[in-house]
Design goal:
5-stranded antiparallel beta sheet; alpha+beta; Immunoglobulin-like; single chain
Length: about 220
């Protein structure tokens, strides 16, 4: 039962905070590519940027999957001048924007795509163009953008209606994701009724706390 309860807390806590760290790595031909947010934790309503790294992919005789090979390596010997041949399309729920890359003047092969993510959630970054002679058309996913209200201190007294709507929308999405996870657990052959009930109880408490905090802000 303790293990099952731990699983539910693992599902719940990321859903509330929405804070995720780390970069995403992939492989394109003979190159290793990596993206991540410039400032972490990244929150909605603040100017930020997606870091983009490109370096040669070192051969991995013992690893058959290119992405696993890329993940086993560190960025080094970056490829310069790709801001002239690569652009980034940032996508969020059907909306998109083309972002040019700006090179880091101190680190060769490191680039920035500056953006202000206005709402919390998961964004998709499509990398389009060429790495020297290698075409690249790759979809990557940087860590989730958190709702700004979760980490503000002290609490603002002039919270706007739009901020309340954004926070409420983010909460609904996160609780929905958690419900799907609990539903999957409920479908397994083992008897999950006990810890499913606990999970539902935790969800209810979380919603009540968030509602109380928002009412105090008003």
């Amino acid at each position: 039962m303790k293990l099952k309860l731990a699983i539910l807390f693992t599902l719940l806590i990321p859903g509330i905070s929405g804070i995720a760290y780390g970069h995403t790595v992939d492989a394109v031909g003979e190159y290793r590519v990596e993206i991540g947010w410039m400032n972490e934790p990244v929150v909605s309503g603040e100017t930020n940027g997606i870091e983009f790294y490109v370096s040669p992919l070192i051969s991995c005789p013992d690893i058959s999957e290119p992405i696993k090979c890329a993940e086993s390596q560190e960025f080094q010997n970056g490829i310069p001048d790709l801001n002239k041949t690569i652009k980034m399309k940032l996508i969020y729920k059907g909306e998109n924007i083309i972002l040019p890359l700006s090179p880091d003047h101190d680190i060769q092969g490191k680039y920035y795509a500056f953006v202000n993510p206005t709402v919390s959630g998961f964004y998709q970054a499509n990398i389009l163009g060429t790495i020297i002679d290698t075409p690249i058309s790759l979809s990557m996913h940087p860590p989730k953008v958190s709702e700004r209200a979760y980490i503000e201190f002290p609490e603002p007294s002039d919270i706007t209606i739009q901020q309340m709507i954004d926070g409420h929308t983010a909460l609904i999405e996160d609780v929905g994701d958690l419900k799907k996870s609990v539903d999957k657990m409920e479908e397994t052959p083992s008897n999950n009724l006990g810890y499913v009930g606990i999970g539902v109880g935790i969800i209810g408490i979380t919603i009540a706390i968030v509602a109380l905090v928002k009412s105090m802000k008003n």
